[in-house]
Amino acid sequence: MRAILFDMDGVLYNSEEPVAGARETLAWARERGIPYLFLTNTTSRPRRALVEKLDRFGIPAAENDILTPCSAAAAWLKAHVDGPVALFVRPAARVEFDGLEILPEEAEQGAAVVVVGDLGDHWDYRTLNRAFRLLHSNPCGILVALGMTRFWQAADGLRLDAGPFVAALEFATGREAVVLGKPAREFYEAAVEKLRVPAGAIVMVGDDVETDIAGAQGAGLRTVLVKTGKFRPADLDAPVKADAVLDSVADLPRWWETSRSE
Question: pTM for the whole thing?
Protein backbone atom coordinates (compact mmCIF):
# COMPACT_ATOMS: atom_id res chain seq x y z
CA MET A 1 0.00 0.00 0.00
CA ARG A 2 1.50 3.28 -1.11
CA ALA A 3 -1.29 5.88 -1.47
CA ILE A 4 -4.80 6.72 -0.29
CA LEU A 5 -8.00 8.09 -1.82
CA PHE A 6 -10.29 9.69 0.75
CA ASP A 7 -13.98 10.16 0.12
CA MET A 8 -15.01 13.37 1.85
CA ASP A 9 -18.63 13.64 2.99
CA GLY A 10 -19.36 10.73 5.31
CA VAL A 11 -15.68 9.92 5.82
CA LEU A 12 -13.96 13.16 6.86
CA TYR A 13 -17.14 14.98 7.85
CA ASN A 14 -20.90 14.54 8.00
CA SER A 15 -22.41 17.60 6.34
CA GLU A 16 -20.98 20.40 8.53
CA GLU A 17 -19.65 18.26 11.38
CA PRO A 18 -16.11 16.79 11.26
CA VAL A 19 -15.63 13.10 11.92
CA ALA A 20 -13.61 12.65 15.10
CA GLY A 21 -10.02 11.73 14.29
CA ALA A 22 -10.13 12.74 10.62
CA ARG A 23 -7.75 15.66 11.10
CA GLU A 24 -5.29 13.45 12.95
CA THR A 25 -5.43 10.76 10.25
CA LEU A 26 -4.60 13.28 7.53
CA ALA A 27 -1.74 14.62 9.67
CA TRP A 28 -0.43 11.04 10.04
CA ALA A 29 -0.47 10.58 6.27
CA ARG A 30 1.43 13.81 5.69
CA GLU A 31 4.01 13.01 8.36
CA ARG A 32 4.75 9.65 6.72
CA GLY A 33 4.85 11.06 3.22
CA ILE A 34 1.92 8.92 2.03
CA PRO A 35 0.46 10.43 -1.18
CA TYR A 36 -3.28 11.02 -0.98
CA LEU A 37 -6.10 12.61 -2.92
CA PHE A 38 -9.60 13.67 -1.96
CA LEU A 39 -12.17 12.03 -4.21
CA THR A 40 -15.76 13.21 -3.95
CA ASN A 41 -19.01 13.10 -5.89
CA THR A 42 -19.95 16.52 -4.56
CA THR A 43 -21.26 18.69 -7.40
CA SER A 44 -22.95 21.41 -5.35
CA ARG A 45 -19.85 23.55 -4.79
CA PRO A 46 -16.49 24.27 -6.46
CA ARG A 47 -13.18 22.86 -5.26
CA ARG A 48 -12.16 26.17 -3.71
CA ALA A 49 -15.19 25.93 -1.40
CA LEU A 50 -14.20 22.37 -0.45
CA VAL A 51 -10.67 23.60 0.32
CA GLU A 52 -12.17 26.20 2.66
CA LYS A 53 -14.39 23.58 4.30
CA LEU A 54 -11.48 21.22 4.94
CA ASP A 55 -9.50 24.12 6.37
CA ARG A 56 -12.28 24.79 8.90
CA PHE A 57 -11.81 21.20 10.08
CA GLY A 58 -8.03 21.61 10.38
CA ILE A 59 -7.22 19.70 7.18
CA PRO A 60 -4.98 21.66 4.80
CA ALA A 61 -5.61 21.11 1.08
CA ALA A 62 -5.21 22.73 -2.32
CA GLU A 63 -7.69 22.63 -5.20
CA ASN A 64 -5.42 20.23 -7.08
CA ASP A 65 -5.69 17.79 -4.14
CA ILE A 66 -9.40 17.33 -4.86
CA LEU A 67 -10.95 15.47 -7.78
CA THR A 68 -14.64 16.20 -8.31
CA PRO A 69 -17.04 15.20 -11.09
CA CYS A 70 -17.26 18.85 -12.13
CA SER A 71 -13.52 19.22 -12.63
CA ALA A 72 -13.33 15.83 -14.37
CA ALA A 73 -16.32 16.67 -16.60
CA ALA A 74 -14.92 20.06 -17.59
CA ALA A 75 -11.68 18.43 -18.73
CA TRP A 76 -13.61 15.73 -20.63
CA LEU A 77 -15.88 18.25 -22.34
CA LYS A 78 -12.96 20.38 -23.49
CA ALA A 79 -11.33 17.30 -24.99
CA HIS A 80 -14.36 15.61 -26.56
CA VAL A 81 -17.18 18.08 -27.24
CA ASP A 82 -17.61 20.94 -29.68
CA GLY A 83 -20.83 22.78 -28.98
CA PRO A 84 -23.00 24.41 -26.30
CA VAL A 85 -23.26 22.79 -22.88
CA ALA A 86 -26.43 22.83 -20.75
CA LEU A 87 -25.53 22.76 -17.07
CA PHE A 88 -27.82 21.33 -14.41
CA VAL A 89 -25.59 22.10 -11.44
CA ARG A 90 -25.89 24.55 -8.59
CA PRO A 91 -24.78 28.14 -9.32
CA ALA A 92 -21.68 27.90 -7.12
CA ALA A 93 -20.35 24.93 -9.11
CA ARG A 94 -20.62 26.61 -12.51
CA VAL A 95 -17.19 28.21 -12.07
CA GLU A 96 -15.61 24.80 -12.69
CA PHE A 97 -16.89 24.98 -16.28
CA ASP A 98 -15.32 28.33 -17.15
CA GLY A 99 -13.97 28.37 -20.69
CA LEU A 100 -16.81 26.26 -22.12
CA GLU A 101 -19.71 27.51 -24.24
CA ILE A 102 -22.61 27.43 -21.79
CA LEU A 103 -26.20 27.47 -23.02
CA PRO A 104 -28.55 30.08 -21.48
CA GLU A 105 -30.40 28.68 -18.47
CA GLU A 106 -33.87 29.00 -20.02
CA ALA A 107 -33.01 27.41 -23.39
CA GLU A 108 -34.85 24.20 -24.28
CA GLN A 109 -32.91 23.31 -27.42
CA GLY A 110 -29.46 23.79 -28.90
CA ALA A 111 -27.41 21.75 -26.42
CA ALA A 112 -24.68 19.42 -27.63
CA VAL A 113 -24.36 18.09 -24.07
CA VAL A 114 -26.59 18.05 -21.01
CA VAL A 115 -24.63 17.84 -17.75
CA VAL A 116 -26.56 16.69 -14.67
CA GLY A 117 -25.32 17.05 -11.11
CA ASP A 118 -26.90 17.42 -7.68
CA LEU A 119 -29.39 20.30 -7.76
CA GLY A 120 -30.88 19.46 -4.37
CA ASP A 121 -34.00 21.55 -3.66
CA HIS A 122 -33.64 23.22 -7.06
CA TRP A 123 -35.02 20.09 -8.73
CA ASP A 124 -38.65 20.33 -9.82
CA TYR A 125 -40.74 18.97 -12.68
CA ARG A 126 -40.05 21.94 -14.95
CA THR A 127 -36.29 21.64 -14.49
CA LEU A 128 -36.22 17.90 -15.12
CA ASN A 129 -38.49 18.31 -18.13
CA ARG A 130 -36.22 21.02 -19.54
CA ALA A 131 -33.29 18.59 -19.42
CA PHE A 132 -35.46 16.04 -21.21
CA ARG A 133 -36.47 18.54 -23.91
CA LEU A 134 -32.86 19.52 -24.54
CA LEU A 135 -31.92 15.89 -25.11
CA HIS A 136 -35.04 15.04 -27.10
CA SER A 137 -34.52 17.98 -29.48
CA ASN A 138 -31.04 16.75 -30.40
CA PRO A 139 -30.82 13.05 -31.36
CA CYS A 140 -27.04 13.31 -31.07
CA GLY A 141 -27.10 15.11 -27.72
CA ILE A 142 -24.93 13.61 -24.99
CA LEU A 143 -26.12 13.09 -21.41
CA VAL A 144 -23.29 13.49 -18.90
CA ALA A 145 -23.86 12.35 -15.32
CA LEU A 146 -21.73 13.84 -12.56
CA GLY A 147 -21.85 10.57 -10.66
CA MET A 148 -24.58 8.00 -10.10
CA THR A 149 -24.82 8.21 -6.32
CA ARG A 150 -28.38 7.39 -5.25
CA PHE A 151 -28.46 9.33 -1.97
CA TRP A 152 -26.28 10.96 0.66
CA GLN A 153 -26.37 11.68 4.38
CA ALA A 154 -27.36 15.28 5.16
CA ALA A 155 -27.79 16.94 8.53
CA ASP A 156 -31.56 16.37 8.37
CA GLY A 157 -31.36 12.79 7.08
CA LEU A 158 -30.92 10.99 3.76
CA ARG A 159 -31.35 13.00 0.56
CA LEU A 160 -31.59 12.01 -3.09
CA ASP A 161 -28.42 12.63 -5.10
CA ALA A 162 -28.00 13.01 -8.87
CA GLY A 163 -28.31 9.31 -9.78
CA PRO A 164 -32.12 9.01 -9.66
CA PHE A 165 -32.56 12.07 -11.90
CA VAL A 166 -30.02 10.79 -14.41
CA ALA A 167 -31.82 7.43 -14.42
CA ALA A 168 -35.12 9.20 -15.20
CA LEU A 169 -33.53 10.97 -18.17
CA GLU A 170 -31.94 7.75 -19.40
CA PHE A 171 -35.33 6.02 -19.28
CA ALA A 172 -37.15 8.87 -20.98
CA THR A 173 -34.61 9.35 -23.79
CA GLY A 174 -33.36 5.79 -24.24
CA ARG A 175 -29.78 7.03 -23.94
CA GLU A 176 -27.02 5.88 -21.64
CA ALA A 177 -25.25 8.60 -19.71
CA VAL A 178 -21.52 9.20 -19.81
CA VAL A 179 -20.68 8.98 -16.11
CA LEU A 180 -17.87 11.25 -14.88
CA GLY A 181 -18.04 10.56 -11.16
CA LYS A 182 -18.13 7.61 -8.79
CA PRO A 183 -18.62 4.69 -9.39
CA ALA A 184 -17.38 5.06 -12.99
CA ARG A 185 -14.10 3.29 -13.64
CA GLU A 186 -12.87 6.28 -15.66
CA PHE A 187 -13.25 8.56 -12.64
CA TYR A 188 -11.13 6.28 -10.47
CA GLU A 189 -8.58 5.91 -13.26
CA ALA A 190 -8.29 9.70 -13.39
CA ALA A 191 -7.49 9.67 -9.67
CA VAL A 192 -4.90 6.92 -10.16
CA GLU A 193 -3.27 8.98 -12.90
CA LYS A 194 -3.07 12.04 -10.63
CA LEU A 195 -1.45 10.01 -7.84
CA ARG A 196 1.01 8.33 -10.25
CA VAL A 197 0.86 5.14 -8.18
CA PRO A 198 -0.27 1.72 -9.49
CA ALA A 199 -3.95 1.10 -8.82
CA GLY A 200 -3.26 -2.04 -6.77
CA ALA A 201 -1.14 0.00 -4.35
CA ILE A 202 -3.89 2.55 -3.63
CA VAL A 203 -6.51 2.27 -0.88
CA MET A 204 -9.92 3.89 -1.31
CA VAL A 205 -11.57 4.88 1.97
CA GLY A 206 -15.34 5.37 1.69
CA ASP A 207 -18.72 5.05 3.38
CA ASP A 208 -20.75 3.91 0.34
CA VAL A 209 -20.50 0.21 -0.46
CA GLU A 210 -21.58 0.79 -4.08
CA THR A 211 -20.00 4.01 -5.31
CA ASP A 212 -16.88 3.89 -3.10
CA ILE A 213 -16.15 0.21 -2.56
CA ALA A 214 -17.53 -1.50 -5.67
CA GLY A 215 -16.46 1.39 -7.90
CA ALA A 216 -12.89 1.39 -6.61
CA GLN A 217 -12.61 -2.38 -6.81
CA GLY A 218 -13.73 -2.20 -10.43
CA ALA A 219 -10.69 -0.03 -11.11
CA GLY A 220 -8.33 -2.42 -9.29
CA LEU A 221 -7.95 -0.51 -6.00
CA ARG A 222 -7.93 -1.86 -2.47
CA THR A 223 -10.80 -0.64 -0.29
CA VAL A 224 -11.72 0.30 3.27
CA LEU A 225 -15.35 0.76 4.31
CA VAL A 226 -15.94 3.05 7.31
CA LYS A 227 -19.01 2.89 9.55
CA THR A 228 -19.77 6.61 9.33
CA GLY A 229 -21.81 8.77 6.95
CA LYS A 230 -24.33 6.77 4.95
CA PHE A 231 -23.04 3.39 6.18
CA ARG A 232 -25.78 1.06 7.42
CA PRO A 233 -25.27 -2.38 9.08
CA ALA A 234 -27.03 -4.01 6.12
CA ASP A 235 -24.09 -2.92 3.94
CA LEU A 236 -22.05 -5.72 5.53
CA ASP A 237 -24.39 -8.24 3.90
CA ALA A 238 -23.89 -6.79 0.42
CA PRO A 239 -22.17 -8.99 -2.18
CA VAL A 240 -19.36 -6.44 -2.42
CA LYS A 241 -16.81 -6.90 0.36
CA ALA A 242 -14.21 -4.29 1.29
CA ASP A 243 -10.68 -5.36 2.19
CA ALA A 244 -11.32 -3.93 5.64
CA VAL A 245 -14.20 -2.45 7.64
CA LEU A 246 -13.31 0.20 10.23
CA ASP A 247 -15.40 2.13 12.72
CA SER A 248 -14.13 5.40 11.24
CA VAL A 249 -11.27 6.99 9.36
CA ALA A 250 -9.62 7.56 12.74
CA ASP A 251 -8.77 3.83 12.77
CA LEU A 252 -6.99 3.93 9.41
CA PRO A 253 -3.43 4.57 10.68
CA ARG A 254 -3.48 1.57 13.01
CA TRP A 255 -4.96 -0.69 10.31
CA TRP A 256 -2.42 0.57 7.77
CA GLU A 257 0.56 -0.05 10.01
CA THR A 258 -0.71 -3.47 11.08
CA SER A 259 -1.43 -4.55 7.51
CA ARG A 260 1.99 -3.48 6.27
CA SER A 261 3.72 -5.41 9.03
CA GLU A 262 1.88 -8.68 8.34
Answer: 0.82
